[in-house]
Write a structure and sequence with these properties.
With 326 residues, this protein is of the alpha/beta class. The protein has 2 domains: 268 residues, Aldolase class I (TIM Barrel, Alpha-Beta Barrel); 37 residues, no CATH class. 41% of the residues lie in helices and 14% in strands. It contains 13 helices and 8 strands. It has an 8-stranded parallel barrel, surrounded by 7 helices. Helix 7 runs parallel beside helix 8, helix 11 runs antiparallel to helix 12 and helix 11 packs parallel to helix 13. The N and C termini lie far apart (64 Å).
Length: 326
């Protein structure tokens, strides 16, 4: 008789996307050295992560090269310098990049998939940008990429607006519609509502539902688990929770929770020890009181980030009073 508990199981169809470089790069303008990006790439690959989002496919006109690092643009020459001929290696992990509506020149920046190490383009947009997002998804799909639709700041729009977006996305070739808690404001009940709303609107389209959680209320991991329980098969995370402000759901926590034997936690722990501990001494991220306050107030974390960079970063009461007054 097996000595393993029968209720410990896993869903093989559930896929993990690590967005450490893309999301974490929002802290430092995506100015990572090649050694760091290569270490994250190798760790994700060795750990059995399904997708690695290596950066943005955004325009150098919107994000000048003298101010932003290469992972804001993900030009193919830069990608090849890090990952080599990734597709020819036979890795099960696929590479992804995010393209922002109004900040990406898709016609120029997104080349045919068979000429790029990338396999997925994730289109990020706000509700008022849905027509542009639909066009971007269509173009990326025509270029041979798997695509996703990432509606940002969903906690800040009405249910009617959400329904309008879902109706438009249902007709696109996007494989996944992602619940994005941009401000780290959502509770379990809201995750439930959004998952059910997304599922009903996209019924019959074959689209998966995804979750991208931020940790302002220290609920990113819990909300990701809730989405998984409901049926989400596409989940986002970052190594050591690395991400702007309060950060994200931790990859190391998520892989341990999922219990899929294809995942190997050791490479993630190794890259944390060898690279992220030192990075943490130089760059601040993770749950702090100002980020918790913005999460409670359903506000963008930029105000907290600016406060932490000011003269009185630990004046939490002053920050709270300022946000209430504004």
């Amino acid at each position: 008789m097996s000595d393993k508990a029968p209720w410990i199981t896993y869903r093989p169809e559930l896929k993990v996307l690590d967005c450490t470089i893309r999301d974490g790069g929002l802290i430092n303008g995506h100015r990572f050295d090649d050694g760091f990006v290569r270490a994250v790439y190798r760790a994700c690959d060795a750990a059995g992560v399904d997708y690695m989002e290596i950066g943005y496919k955004n325009s150098p006109e919107a994000f000048p090269r003298e101010k932003y690092g290469p992972w804001r643009h993900c030009k193919e020459d830069d990608l090849l310098r890090i990952v080599g001929d990734h597709k020819a290696k036979g890795s099960a992990m696929k590479l992804a990049a995010m393209a922002d509506a109004s900040k990406s020149d898709c016609e120029t920046d997104i080349i045919p998939a068979d000429q790029s190490p990338l396999s997925m383009i994730r289109v990020a947009f706000y509700a008022h940008q849905v027509p542009e997002a639909v066009e971007m998804i269509g173009h990326a799909h025509a270029m041979g990429y798997e695509t996703t639709a990432n509606l940002m700041a969903v906690s800040n729009i009405s249910e009617t607006e959400i329904d309008t977006v879902l109706e438009a996305i249902a007709a696109t070739p996007a494989s996944t519609m992602v619940i994005v808690d941009s401000f780290g404001h959502l509770y379990r009940e809201q995750i439930d509502m959004l998952y059910n709303r997304y599922t009903k609107a996209l019924e019959g389209t074959g689209k998966e539902i995804g979750i991208h959680a931020h940790n302002n209320l220290q609920l990113a991991f819990a909300n990701t688990i809730e989405a998984i329980i409901l049926g989400c098969n596409r989940v986002d995370s970052t190594i050591f929770g690395f991400g702007r402000g309060a950060g994200n759901c931790h990859t190391e926590l998520l892989l341990g929770f999922l219990r899929n034997p294809k995942f190997n936690l050791r490479p993630i722990l190794e890259v944390i020890q060898d690279h992220f501990l030192d990075l943490r001494r130089r760059i601040e991220w993770g749950p702090l009181v100002p980020y918790n306050i913005t999460g409670q107030m359903n506000a963008h974390p930029r105000a907290a980030i600016e406060w932490r960079a000011g003269e009185t970063p630990d004046d939490f009461l002053g920050f709270y009073d300022k946000l209430v007054a504004d």
